Amino acid sequence: MSRLNSSPLNIVAVAAAALALSACGSLAPKNERPAAPVAQAWSATPATVKGSGPAAAELPWQNFYGSDARLRELIKLALENNRDLRVALLNVEQARALAGVADSNRWPTVGVGVQGSRAPDSKGNNVNSYQAGLQITAYELDLWGRVKNLSDAAAARYLATAEGSRAAQISLVAGVASAYLAWVADGELLKLSQDTVATRGESLRLMRLKFDGGAASALEYSSEQSAHSSALASLAQAKRNLAQDENALALLLGQPLPANLPAGLSLAAQSLADVPAGLPSEVLVARPDVRQAEAQLMAANANIGAARAAFFPSILLTTNYGTASSALSELFKNSVWTITGQALMPIFDAGRNQANLDSAKAAQGIAVAQYEKAVQTAFREVADGLAGRATYGEQLQAQSAQAKAEAERLRLVNLRYANGASNSLEWLDAQRASFASEQALVQVRLATLLNGVNLYKALGGGVAAPAADKS
């Protein structure tokens, strides 16, 4: 131990030199975004890609789903109560704290202590000893960037977790919207099934009277029974689907469906904002899941730097500065400081460092592949949404025309049947065709809306409006 009567400036100079030595370069690979393994443009027509209004990532969900007050309220409740989103947000808090722990390792840990002792000397006389001072214990001079890379890796994991929470919010918003629209569609199918059961029940009653009176054949009566039973089966399925939709919504909301929800809209009255697709190079890298994969790649690069630094000597410093005296009244008159350095160079570790480096490189390769897969998945989702945007409008128009034609056909067959110009089989066929076309129309409307929801999500839409805009 060195004992000097000097000013604290000596210790400050030593600490500054240690920090300067630790501010050296990194052995980690340079962070470079891999080339996107997708086409440079969408295959859809320019009119389909163009859209109107702001980009999806800049359009708050309150505006995208602005036509239905009930849907907006359900999304708001889900964002407040959904357990998966709550876990995602807590994961962000945990990652932020861990990043703070990792960053703190780059700085010295300074402690203060006071000690007093009384013990006999070699002559049997009692001797007092008092000490007080500051201490820096086992501070690593980060000459090779090991600690810095570990801190960078933790910071990148924090960023990845934050992007993951944004992706979870976007998925939740889209999930609630999809479940709600399916609930509305199944409600309309239930009403259609109930009306069909009532109509076919009355037809069966009349056919029974005719059959009992000998005015109808067994074939006609059996056909009417089959049609009625088919309608009952469709009604049971519609009831089950509606109940399951409510259960799905309750899970997403994190609570039972409130009884005081505002009035909603029918499928035909629903409207979603028309968002532009933009260029793949701009859209894909802004998606939270792609940004999350990129942050994970940055963390993997930093881990390689930390693994490479393990091959070089590690230097640890322990420093004490304080006072010591045999008399308490003289404690702060004599200054004492010590500096202890330790260097450790790995010579034989049975391949541990090399294995750690190989593992870090493999993890970096995995992160690259995961990033590329995230980009490809994002591209496919947007391309699918654009394909749907280009064709669902035509399909919906054709299905509406078919439903209208089948309704008119049923009206005419009813007139013919009432006047004896058509038989019961022709009448049943017209009923079945009209019911099927109405069902198909509801399903196409639902598919069209779901495509809009999924395209909005694929383009990175689903963020909340700023606080000032939430009035």
Explain the overall architecture.
It is built from eleven helices and four strands, in the order αααααββααααββαα. It is an alpha+beta fold and 471 residues long. A four-stranded antiparallel β-sheet has the order 1-2-3-4, with helices on one face. It has two domains: 1-28 and 107-141 and 312-345, Outer membrane efflux proteins (OEP), CATH 2.20.200; 31-106 and 144-311 and 352-469, Outer membrane efflux proteins (OEP) (Up-down Bundle).
SSE class: alpha+beta
Supply the number of helical segments.
11
Q: Estimate the mean pLDDT confidence.
A: 84
Name of the CATH architecture of the largest domain: Up-down Bundle
Report the CATH C-level class of the largest domain.
Answer: Mainly Alpha
Cα-based radius of gyration, to the nearest Å = 37 Å
Helix content range of the residues, please?
Answer: 55-70%
What general form does the structure show? elongated
Topology as a string of helices (H) and strands (E): HHHHHEEHHHHEEHH
- Tell me the major beta sheet: 4 strands, antiparallel
* Number of structurally distinct domains: 2
Under CATH, the topology of the largest domain can be stated as Outer membrane efflux proteins (OEP)
Would you report the number of β strands? 4
CATH superfamily grouping of the largest domain: Outer membrane efflux proteins (OEP)
Record the strand order, biggest sheet: 1-2-3-4
For the termini, the CA-CA separation is: 69 Å
**Percent of residues in β-strands:** 5-15%
